[in-house]
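Lecture 7 notes: from sequence to structure.

We start with a single chain of 175 residues. Read the sequence below before looking at the structure.
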Amino acid sequence: MEEYSQGFIQIYTGEGKGKTTAAIGLAVRALGAGLKVAFLQFLKPDTSSEVLILKQFEPNLFYQNFGEGKFVRGKVNQSLKDNLLKGWTLAKKLIKEGSYDLVILDEIFYALEWGIINLKEFLEVLKEKADKVEVVLTGRKAPQEIVEMADLVSEVKKVKHYFDRGVLARKGIEK
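Now the structure, written as tokens:
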């Protein structure tokens, strides 16, 4: 196996479906290569099918959810703010200490947009990341400052989606 020596910063952003799926695919690839993965999920429920399969990779995969079991609609309550900050505290530690080869912060950008996580602090943590740590950030509305710092940025664009016809999330496909 090749030496894993340099970690980069990746972003999966945009209005289309597939950002989390891309990050999970990368997590599975990393696990297959013998790397250790931390998958921190912000905002999304921890009940989806991908979470069930990810948990089967423990102890090589560490999974933690910092949402409230549902999608956020409307005003952010204090409990959610506290959860997001708890997740951010853990994320900072994992990114800086280097105990995981791949650290995924899924749906992190809303916490920045809402001002729950300070953008300047976020940028500093990315600058101070352990050399070998690959950091993957997903979510809509990636801040331009983070996009400029990142090494890889993929934008997922919705061209057409069956949700627009009233099709709800299906088990094993969207949840």
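The chain has six helices and six strands. Keep this in mind for problem set 3.
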